[in-house]
Amino acid sequence: MNQVGILIIDDDEASQAALRQMLDEEGWTVRIVPLANQAMAVLASGNYKLVIVNVAMTGLSGPLFTTLKELALAPPVESGGHPGVRVLFLVPELAAPEAQPVLEHGQLPYSLKPFHLHDFLEKVSDLLLETGAIPQPIRRVHHEHKSAERNFARERPVSGDRRLGRNRRQTTMFAARDDYMMSEEEMLEFEKQEKEEQEHQKKKKKQLGLP
After folding, report:
1. What is the mean pLDDT of residues 97-102?
2. What is the reported pTM?
3. 116-119, Cβ contacts within 8 angstroms, sequence gap of 24 or more
4. In the chain, is it the N or the C terminus that has fewer CB atoms within a 10 Å radius of its CB?
5. Where exactly are the structural domains of the chain?
6. Which residues contact 211 (CB under 8 A, 6 or more apart)?
7. What fold characterizes domain 5-180?
């Protein structure tokens, strides 16, 4: 399997550290770009399977957002069988009223901040599966993420700021640990649903005559 390269475009240090720690644990190669005007050159120079970008850095128009939107909507596998690049937009809490309708209308994948750790990893997993960058879904759900809670859930946005700017980017990365920890019953239900989905996919492939 090819090395999974992930590009993070975000200038919020808390988000950078949280994302790097989480994705490093999966064994993937992470590159962080803190300046929007550097993102295009870095993206063009590397072999990235996924771009995770703070929508407050791109805005909802302009060349960077347009390029990432085109990548997000492109086929997951290009002509010739080459895997494409998937894009996941991060939407800070105060940016959501403006950004969320635009992303939903454009059918663009996104995650709201703060978010649950396993929900975020599930979205990352789904996007990487589309291109064949990983052979199977991420099944490891983190019950605890103490360092993320302690080090990264710090800053809250300043109220009253109506611009897509730095205050909107510096939001809590994760929900509180009690919010995203799964109980034993929830874990069993989660694993049951995954098993049922796998069986469903196997049956579907068999009906289509796929290997």
Report:
1. 95
2. 0.68
3. 116/174, 116/175, 116/179, 116/180, 117/22, 117/141, 117/142, 117/145, 117/148, 117/174, 117/180, 118/142, 118/180, 118/182, 119/180
4. C
5. 5-180, 183-211
6. 205
7. Rossmann fold (3.40.50)
